Amino acid sequence: MDKGKIKVCVGLSGGVDSSVAAYLLKQEGYDVFAMFMQNWHDADPTLHGDCEWEEDRFVAEMVARKIGIPFYFVDLSKQYRQRVVDYMFDEYSKGRTPNPDVLCNREIKFDAFWEIARKYGAHYVATGHYCRKEEIPGQAGDDGKSVFRILEGADPNKDQTYFLCQLTQKQLSKALFPIGDLVKPEVRRIAKEADLPSAEKKDSQGICFVGKVDLPTFLKQKLASVEGDIVEVFDAFYADDPLYQWQQNTLTGLLKPGNSLERTVHYAPEEKILTSDGEPLGESPYGEIGLTDEDLDRLATPVSYNITFETETYRSGKKHIKKTRYKVNPHGVIVGRHEGAQFYTIGQRKGLGVGGHKDPVFVIATDTEANRVYVGEGHNHKGLSRFCLKVNPEEIHWIRTDLTMKPGETRRYRVRIRYRQPLQGATLLMRETGLYILFDQPQRGISPGQFAVWYDGDEMLGSGVISK
Questions:
Q1: DSSP bridge partners of 339
Q2: What is the DSSP letter of 353?
Q3: Comparing C-alpha atoms, which of 108, 103, 83 is closest to residue 450?
Q4: Is 51 a catalytic residue?
Q5: pLDDT tens column, 282-330
Q6: Of these residues, 104, 131, 165, 388, which one is catalytic?
Q7: Residue 402: count of CB within 10 angstroms of its CB
Q8: Are residues 175 and 42 in the same domain?
Q9: According to DSSP H, which parts of 68-148 are helical?
Q10: Could you tell me the pTM of the whole model?
């Protein structure tokens, strides 16, 4: 089809990436128009952030005028609240850590936004994501339907496929990613040479379409603050914990000869190469994984810190005044107070208010029922690292539905559990009870509610919500 007859709606945010996406499509001859989404009202009582959407809209409108394309404004704040913000509050109330940006793409940009763009006559929706899309033409035996692949972006330090991990084949069929073959400096250069008003604009930060906010303040608008204990867990706890010891022994028993088990992660900043970079996936350190469903479930279960503290009375001072204190517990100690366990997430370092330690202190677990936050000192604390996670059957999502794993299947893929995490070697085991991901190396800060995303080479195949 003549590109001039193909109508493309660009989600123009006012940033440089979407601006260049629109510019390139226009240069290629497509019939392009822009739509700016308002997904949040600053005056809304739920949150007072610093998302200057008026300025973003102004810049987006100037970009559209510069390129010479029609510009429209659409208010999707109602849909955003219902599908993204309410989901966030619900997940945090359960002590889980959601990813609103993933939901924003699935529910808003490639759903609610697309429906409106379609009414304006759009054949496709384009965004400024750093990723690539390929089409595998359908064969007669496949009912003539094409299969769409979503691939890592060409920029090894800017790949954004993770945020698109919940898209469907139907959504991909209508999506375009014009800057996926470019690196960020090249995008900036194109914007500058085209004299686009967004050429020098800084990248946005914070929650998708909400902005950079103080998360606890955000959550306190809907979730009640209730004080509770912050408990520091000592190494001695793990030596006495049956589940931890069983996991250690089970993992050790799975290893091939010549491999050793190292439970903790050596700390390193995550500003590394994000993509597979063409390197082949290495062999698994494990031999045959002949575990039952129950064993796999136990391997994926995080340690439960049911540490109890007994009190004792003693006499203090010259007047021998009676006082109460906690008895010394070799497993842990109460080191502070918090305002609600639901406001904290695993791996969190800032905002704890716990001092007097040589090394940084991190959240290793939260218990919303007991309203407790558990912490550990040091990057190599045993509580920060796990080898195995589980995705419940109803939370497994395959982008490549033609490659869906069947119960009993085992495959080797690369996996990441958060954006900007370098891809990790892992074994995926599909069982009736769910999908289990067993990593080659221990993973730091596995958080229920976040998305685990798996790749074959440079292709993203699927994702799932970490259940525990």
A1: none
A2: -
A3: 103
A4: no
A5: 899 999 999 999 999 999 999 999 899 888 887 777 777 777 778 899 9
A6: 104
A7: 10
A8: yes
A9: 77-80, 86-93, 100-103, 113-119
A10: 0.91
